[in-house]
Amino acid sequence: MAAACAAAATLLAATAMPIPAQDAPTGSPKSYVEAVPDTTVKLAMIAVPGGVITIKRTGKNAVSQAVTIKPFWIEQTELTWDAFDPYAFPLAASGPAPKAGADAVSRPSRPYIPADLGWGHKGFPVINVTYHTGQQYCAWLSAKTGKKYRLPTEAEWEWAARAGVKGSPKTTTAQLQKVAWYAANSKGQTQPAGRKAPNAWGIHDMLGNAGEWCTGLDGKPVLCGGTYDDPAARILFGTRAWQTPDWNATDPQIPKSKWWLADGSFAGFRVLREP
């Protein structure tokens, strides 16, 4: 991840214990595509089985906790600008942004710089966003679809990222190149979502590319999975980072935006749906 958040990051170790097939709950969810009403947005949602995962942290944010995971759906890729724009910028780019709350939806203010930094828009993951933005997007998506969407917890996120992998497996450079965008292959920026191979459960980009906002074990925001700017040693299931003032240091607004991170080119999210 960018140097600005290196000091705030902690590596975690976790063990995963999948539920045996015969113990899977009746009516386990099946993967589907969510067509968001009144938009062209389609979100591929992958069914994830339940199980138990133990999250272990050392250092400043030390914790060891076994968490029972109920079945859920998680977005196949990080949320892209294509899916975000109808929420954040429902009018043409040349038109005025709607007033927050005008249609009972809280929307981001327009960023003072291109939010995608000119790296790419169509098919690229959302970046430079706060945890609050992810929460509000999920609230909008829930209202549009009538289903319960939210950000994943860090335990749910890691359970989905591992896809049944236990412990701390050693990954070769060749293996990492196949599944993740990171410092050695990203060319210093995020890359289109879904271009790398998926994990065993069919989920892309859980490691690297844009880091993903989740709700931590303590209920506070945490960024999971490493990013395009991280070295191979930090592209791990247990990589976490917590926001510091450096992530929004160059925002000229007073007070600083609660929606955008001027220096958060590594911060994105994906959505989860509860059964």
**Quaternary:** single chain
What is the string of SSEs from the N terminus onward? HEEEEEEHHEHHEEEEE
Radius of gyration, in angstroms, nearest whole number: 18 Å
Number of strands: 12
* Strand arrangement across the biggest beta sheet: 5-4-1-10-9-8-11
Average pLDDT, all residues: 87
Number of helices: 5
Strand content: 15-25%
Helix content: 10-25%
Structural class: alpha+beta
Distance between the termini: 33 Å
Q: Provide the low-confidence segments as ranges.
A: 2-26, 92-103
Biggest sheet architecture: 7 strands, mixed
* Tertiary shape: globular
Question: What's the topology here?
Answer:
Elements (H helix, E strand, L loop, with lengths): L2 H4 L2 E10 L13 E4 L6 E7 L2 E7 L5 E7 L2 E4 L5 H8 L42 H15 L3 E2 L3 H9 L10 H7 L31 E5 L5 E4 L14 E3 L25 E2 L3 E2 L2
Parallel strand pairs: 8-11
Antiparallel strand pairs: 1-4, 1-10, 2-3, 3-6, 4-5, 6-12, 7-12, 8-9, 9-10
Supply database-style keywords.
alpha+beta, seven-stranded mixed β-sheet, five-stranded antiparallel β-sheet, globular
Word description of this protein:
This protein has 275 residues and is α+β, with helices and mostly antiparallel strands. It has helices spanning 3-6, 81-88, 131-145, 154-162, 173-179; strands at residues 9-18, 32-35, 42-48, 51-57, 63-69, 72-75, 149-150, 211-215, 221-224, 239-241, 267-268, 272-273. The model is unreliable at 2-26 and 92-103 (pLDDT under 50).
